[in-house]
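Revision sheet: structure tokens.
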Amino acid sequence: MARSEQEIISSIAASIKEKDSSIDVTKGPLYNFLISPIVSTVRNIELSAERADALLSLDMITVRDNSEEISAFGNNFKVARGGGTMKKNVRCAVIGQHPLRFPWGFDEEDDGCRRMKLEMAQRIMELRQRGVTEFQVACDPGVGLYAAEIINILREKDKFLRLVCVIPHEEQATKWTPQLRERYFNMLAGCTELDCIDFHEQPDAQLLAYQRIIKQSGVVLAVYAPDLADGSAEDKAVSYALALGRPVMLIHPETLKTKWLNVPTEKAPG
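Predicted:
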């Protein structure tokens, strides 16, 4: 994962101090004329390498044709299949439990997290192939952010794909780490449409953002383990989607098993 500028500066400073502890590289002429340009260059190289790796990972994914699931999905929306593609545009909300509910927490280098994100990419690409043209996220620092980054990468090759970001309030990322904040603002800068629940934080702001994207969508993709439910905003969001009758695809974050809820499995008549 690409390091933040501060992390790069700290790394350079540590290396220089090993040679001469009296040198301060964080300020003054040395920083302005030597360190600062190096930091920007290193940062850009790492970001480019990270993006290339992400693109390569997505290019290597083979979209599965889960005929039974897709037929049920199509029947639910009363859309016909033609050449394996749904003939109707559908919006999809993407939600998921907070990273601290997962065994790896915020460690995105963990194999479990990597596998989960690849499964998310697989399912997003499947839904795109079947007619979903717009994905909506509530900009949470876990699944919402991961999904938005995947979708923004896909949008580089798919001009018809849209990403809608609904933020709970304008100060959402104020207390996030510098690296997460940077990714947050990159997500917002790259999206197709941006909406905000309120300027200032209010009770249940995250839940309100989830409810808005669910209400605006026809289907929900949820990275969610029912056994980890504890009454959080994400738990309430899944219940809200089911109460509205939205088809919900659950991806278990650890086993990666998927399950459709609110989608009839029997073949639609006629």
